């Protein structure tokens, strides 16, 4: 599918359907990056659906608690839980998974929403470029560590849990350069300080959203049709969001005018996340591995569908699993026991 700038403008101007509402009685919902923006607005909608547990996974204790308090004030939902996770720190992700393992509860919906945009190279304590780690390494790590809980939930309760990865229409504009593909490790090259020039970082968000779509498709391809789990990617559209607060220079000016003319209210964008997590109740299997926009399945980019794109996707999957196995051996168990 071609996604031109004109296509982008048309999609921004299209009328958005209302939010879908379902009964989440007894179910557990986790929203990552729930203290602000799309994550918080989606959490507000989930809170009105009577979930058994609603976990706000946030990086910062103070901002997270403020979100819990605001959620209660605006929705009346009184039992929201704040759990801390920092995707820029693999140890924090593992601690989150440890806590859930000890908690022993069910997990029906996981919305992997957190992401960052940075204008220049910054390394995490784990030695990776921050955008790449947060958006494309730690998010899969958290998902794979929680995957066994979701599958067990489906088996025990006869349900179909959902993993929703927040992607973007800009994945159509993401590219992986030929020299990167010729390197011994795609992900290591993409995360290296030598490769991350200002030009590369200016397009890094597009790339990370491309990798998000590839992750969803690669994971889904390895989930048996009999496994009670739906994984999908969703495009919320271009919305008012604090994610772009790290921009600088002319990027700030351009984004200001873009927001004034084209940005959707954050609540409108979050409806896509909610639909990906709860919509199409009669035929949820049709959402397996799909890319969702405007509360319907849309075609991914031509590159993702191309022979080169599919080959690259499989190669990146292999690299990703090896990287994450080294971070946490439980990834190996998930890959061996639950994936084909």
From TrEMBL:
Pfam families reported for this sequence: adh_short
Ranges in coiled-coil conformation: none
One MF annotation (Gene Ontology) recorded for this entry: oxidoreductase activity
Keywords: Oxidoreductase
Statement: the UniProt record of this protein carries the keyword Lipid metabolism: no
Signal peptide start and end residues: none
PANTHER family according to UniProt: PHOSPHATIDYLINOSITOL-GLYCAN BIOSYNTHESIS CLASS F PROTEIN (PTHR43157:SF31), PHOSPHATIDYLINOSITOL-GLYCAN BIOSYNTHESIS CLASS F PROTEIN-RELATED (PTHR43157)
Protein's recorded name: Short-chain dehydrogenase
Species, as recorded: Mycena metata
Highest classification ranks of the organism: Eukaryota, Fungi, Dikarya, Basidiomycota, Agaricomycotina
């Amino acid at each position: 599918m071609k996604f031109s700038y004109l296509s982008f403008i048309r999609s921004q101007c299209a009328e958005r359907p209302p939010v879908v509402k379902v009964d989440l009685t007894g179910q557990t919902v986790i929203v990552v990056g729930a203290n602000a923006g799309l994550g918080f607005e989606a959490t507000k909608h989930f809170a009105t659906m009577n979930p058994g547990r609603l976990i706000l996974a946030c990086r910062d204790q103070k901002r997270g608690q403020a979100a819990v308090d605001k959620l209660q004030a605006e929705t009346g939902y009184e039992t929201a839980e704040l759990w801390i996770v920092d995707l820029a720190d693999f140890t924090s992700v593992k601690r989150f998974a440890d806590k859930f393992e000890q908690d022993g509860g069910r997990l029906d919906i996981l919305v992997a929403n957190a992401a960052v945009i940075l204008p220049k190279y910054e390394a995490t304590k784990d030695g990776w470029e921050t955008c790449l780690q947060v958006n494309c390494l730690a998010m899969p790590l958290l998902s794979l560590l929680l995957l066994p809980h979701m599958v067990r939930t489906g088996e025990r309760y006869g349900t179909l849990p959902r993993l929703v990865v927040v992607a973007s229409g800009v994945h159509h504009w993401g590219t992986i350069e030929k020299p990167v593909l010729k390197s011994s490790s795609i992900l290591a090259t993409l995360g290296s300080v030598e490769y991350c020039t200002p030009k590369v970082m200016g397009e890094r968000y597009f790339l990370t959203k491309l990798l998000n779509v590839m992750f969803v498709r690669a994971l889904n391809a390895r989930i048996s049709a009999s496994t009670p789990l739906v994984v999908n990617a969703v495009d919320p559209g271009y919305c008012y969001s604090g994610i772009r607060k790290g921009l600088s220079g002319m990027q700030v000016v351009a984004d200001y005018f873009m927001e004034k003319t084209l940005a959707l209210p954050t609540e409108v964008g979050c409806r896509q996340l909610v639909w990906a997590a709860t919509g199409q109740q009669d035929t949820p299997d049709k959402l397996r591995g799909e890319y969702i926009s405007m509360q319907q399945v849309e075609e991914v980019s031509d590159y993702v569908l191309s022979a080169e794109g599919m080959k690259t996707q499989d190669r990146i999957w292999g690299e990703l699993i090896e990287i994450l196995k080294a971070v946490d051996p439980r990834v190996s168990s998930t890959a061996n026991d639950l994936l084909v």
